[in-house]
């Protein structure tokens, strides 16, 4: 007897319950895949709208910066043997903050800066506060003064202010405020491509606003410009710099689907990679549906065979 017909005289042929379940599952799979595609394109569209806004905000910097620039030295290693003094007056080497496992976020500022440095560090605190990671756990932060006349006591006062704003006391061991001599400062600035100059008329420094994302071994991985730091951009820059040593599997998938757009200052969708992930998701969903359907059919045939033997 053909198992699929099951003509009992009660009316026209109706699909088996397993077939109806499979049909519903297939429709559900199509809906899930379509939903994934719509979500992916929606994220891309949202990013295209949000990026110009962030770029505009980040571009609102003083006119003095027109003569000061930054030359990117991506993938070059900074000199980790440079010696500085931390906020507690201890002599350290820059390499003390690179443990080979966690990335480092570096900024060059000066603690007596009347405007731009405060804007940058406040913006960085705001962005880092919205991250689920904590300074000192997944990554380190190092802030170096470009003014050789500034003291560890001033550095400590600034550290306390920003830690209070950050609101996570445990980050005290992970954010370091350094001072140093002109020779050491200039060597670090040259290595990072950070241009600055002293303006005698005002007694201030003219400089740009940027944060440098470094790999656990001290190589420059990413430059983040401006005074606005979008939490996801910072997080994925750190994940990328750590080369998979930090972050969840989902973070790695997102990095596969997005790439950093230096002009936009954010991670933007890679359509081909999104399609690949979508195809993989489709294959997994359909494979699960077909496998479930096959198991049900196999069990149904086993029950029919056992019933026939009786």
UniProtKB/TrEMBL annotation:
Keywords: Membrane, Transmembrane, Transmembrane helix. SUPFAM superfamilies: Thioredoxin-like (SSF52833). It comes from the Bacteria. The keyword Protease does not apply. InterPro entries: SCO1/SenC (IPR003782), Thioredoxin-like_sf (IPR036249). Gene3D superfamilies: Glutaredoxin. The chain crosses the membrane at residues 274-295. It holds the Pfam family SCO1-SenC. Belongs to the SCO1/2 family. PANTHER family: ELECTRON TRANSPORT PROTIN SCO1/SENC FAMILY MEMBER (PTHR12151), THIOREDOXIN DOMAIN-CONTAINING PROTEIN (PTHR12151:SF8). This is SCO family protein.
């Amino acid at each position: 007897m053909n198992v699929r017909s099951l003509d009992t005289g009660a009316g026209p042929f109706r699909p088996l319950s397993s077939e109806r379940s499979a049909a519903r599952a297939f429709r559900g799979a199509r809906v899930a895949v379509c939903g994934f595609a719509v979500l992916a394109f929606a994220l891309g569209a949202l990013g295209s709208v949000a990026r110009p806004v962030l770029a505009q905000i980040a571009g609102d910097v003083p006119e003095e910066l027109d003569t000061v620039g930054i030359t990117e030295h991506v993938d070059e290693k900074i000199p980790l043997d440079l010696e500085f003094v931390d906020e507690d007056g201890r002599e350290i080497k820059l390499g003390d903050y690179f443990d080979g496992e966690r990335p480092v976020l570096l900024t060059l500022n000066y603690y007596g800066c009347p405007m731009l440095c405060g804007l940058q560090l406040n913006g960085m605190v705001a962005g880092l506060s919205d991250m689920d990671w904590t300074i000192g756990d997944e990554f380190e932060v190092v802030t170096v003064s470009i003014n050789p006349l500034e003291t560890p006591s001033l550095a400590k006062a600034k550290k306390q202010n920003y830690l209070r704003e950050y609101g996570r006391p445990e980050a005290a061991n992970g954010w370091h405020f350094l001072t140093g001599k002109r020779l050491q400062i200039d060597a670090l600035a040259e290595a990072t491509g950070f241009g600055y100059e002293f303006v005698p008329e005002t007694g201030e420094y003219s400089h740009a606003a940027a944060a440098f994302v470094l790999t656990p071994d001290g190589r420059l991985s990413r430059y983040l410009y401006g005074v606005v730091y979008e939490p996801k951009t910072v997080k994925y820059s750190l994940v990328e710099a750590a080369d998979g040593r930090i972050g969840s599997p989902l973070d790695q998938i997102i990095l596969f689907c997005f790439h950093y757009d230096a002009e936009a200052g954010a991670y933007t969708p890679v359509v081909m990679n999104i399609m690949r992930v979508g195809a993989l998701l489709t294959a997994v969903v359909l494979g699960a549906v077909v496998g479930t359907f096959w198991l049900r059919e196999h069990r149904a045939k086993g029950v029919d065979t056992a019933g026939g033997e009786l």
